[in-house]
């Protein structure tokens, strides 16, 4: 691998000559801009605005544009006089646990190669010290005209360096989270946990860029004069508004993709509960301490039995109460009817006596 920077690691009073090489490569397919009528290449030319002519690379320098639009020329000699101690040195300033580094700060990655036989001993010393301490080194270095922050760690038998953004270059996540209050219940969390368990883990080496592979097939077909392959129609999925239904569907789809048959749902439970019961129980803060799956199953059966008995008692009680109310109403009606009849009879007798008089 070709080195892009030569310098040394400053480890206290120890200096380790190293070469910096890229640890990653861009595998994406790039396109050229062409004139669609004749296929001619479209190129960009560097033109001086004042003279309106194309200029050569040797005539191009650097300049800083001021707020009022004034250009301040900056030469390489001006930059060479900057008080930058890290111009040719990766200066280690601290050793910290790896979890202290926020992944948001991660930038480009490089390998640090030992610069010659004399660097083998100090290089190995630093590598083994990093291994034993289980820490990473924080360093400053200069690259492409600016000072940068880096993190050194061990990868196999080599030392790698990740460029880090300065802390003030990472934005705070203000206004990113939902601004509405949302409550997530335990059933939804259980289904989310179940989906995570079903998807499981994966070896990252198994992942590949399917889009790039499809693009290569299209380019190859066009180059050989053949028709490009047709893309498969995407599976049509309706817009799911119910979060629980979406989680259940995701769990089933994940199981089927792994060749597993989804378990038959429990008729006594809702679809969400049935889906959760078919997956391994996860230990979490919501689970009762020292509770096994067997105990959970037993308690579930007892709870169901208690609920059934309670339901039966309530039903019986309601029926008895209804019968009592009906009897009371019937007696009340009967009593009222008797009183009314008696009053009417007495009134008739009184009227008859008055006529006779």
UniProtKB/TrEMBL annotation:
Region (Disordered) location: 250-357
Domain Ku residue range list: 52-181
Bias type Basic residues, positions: 341-357
Signal peptide (from-to): none
Keywords: DNA damage, DNA recombination, DNA repair, DNA-binding
Stretches that traverse the bilayer: none
SMART domains, alphabetized: Ku78
Start-end of Low complexity biased regions: 296-340
InterPro entries assigned: DNA_bd_Ku70/Ku80, Prok_Ku, SPOC-like_C_dom_sf
Biased composition (Basic and acidic residues): 250-261
Keyword Chloroplast in record: no
Cytoplasm is among the record's keywords: no
Subunit details: Homodimer. Interacts with LigD.
PANTHER family named in the record: NON-HOMOLOGOUS END JOINING PROTEIN KU
Similarity section: Belongs to the prokaryotic Ku family.
Summary of the function given for this chain in its UniProt record: With LigD forms a non-homologous end joining (NHEJ) DNA repair enzyme, which repairs dsDNA breaks with reduced fidelity. Binds linear dsDNA with 5'- and 3'- overhangs but not closed circular dsDNA nor ssDNA. Recruits and stimulates the ligase activity of LigD.
Protein name as it appears in the record: Non-homologous end joining protein Ku
Species of origin: Streptomyces nigra
């Amino acid at each position: 691998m070709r080195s892009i920077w030569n310098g040394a690691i400053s480890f206290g009073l120890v200096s380790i000559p190293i070469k910096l090489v890229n640890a990653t490569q861009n595998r994406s397919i790039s396109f050229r801009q062409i004139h669609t009528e004749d296929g001619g290449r479209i190129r960009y030319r560097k033109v001086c605005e004042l003279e309106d002519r194309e200029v050569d690379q040797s005539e191009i320098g650097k300049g800083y544009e001021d707020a009022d639009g004034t250009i301040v020329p900056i030469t390489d000699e001006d930059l060479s006089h900057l008080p930058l101690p890290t111009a040719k040195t990766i200066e280690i300033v601290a050793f910290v646990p790896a979890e202290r580094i926020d992944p948001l700060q991660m930038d480009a990655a490089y390998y640090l190669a030992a610069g010659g036989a004399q660097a083998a001993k100090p290089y190995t010393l630093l590598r083994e010290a990093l291994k034993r301490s289980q820490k990473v080194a924080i360093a400053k270095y200069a690259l492409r005209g600016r000072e940068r922050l880096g993190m050194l760690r061990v990868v196999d038998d080599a030392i790698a360096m990740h460029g880090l953004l300065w802390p003030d270059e990472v934005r705070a996540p203000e206004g990113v989270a939902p601004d509405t209050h949302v409550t997530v219940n335990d059933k939804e969390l259980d289904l989310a946990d179940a989906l995570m368990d079903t998807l499981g883990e994966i070896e990252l080496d198994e992942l590949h860029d399917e889009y790039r592979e499809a693009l290569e097939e299209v380019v190859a077909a066009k180059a050989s004069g053949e028709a490009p392959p047709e893309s498969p129609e995407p599976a049509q999925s309706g817009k799911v508004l119910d979060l629980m239904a979406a989680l259940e569907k995701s769990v089933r789809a994940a199981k089927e993709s792994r060749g597993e048959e989804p378990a038959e749902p429990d008729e006594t439970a809702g679809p969400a509960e049935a889906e959760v019961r078919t997956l391994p129980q996860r230990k979490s803060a919501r689970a009762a301490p020292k509770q096994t799956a067997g105990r959970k199953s037993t308690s579930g059966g007892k709870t169901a039995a208690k609920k059934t008995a309670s339901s039966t008692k309530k039903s019986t009680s309601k029926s008895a109460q209804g019968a009592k109310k009906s009897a009371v109403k019937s007696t009340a009606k009967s009593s009222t009817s008797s009183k009314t009849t008696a009053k009417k009879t007495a009134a008739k007798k009184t009227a008859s006596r008055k006529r006779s008089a």
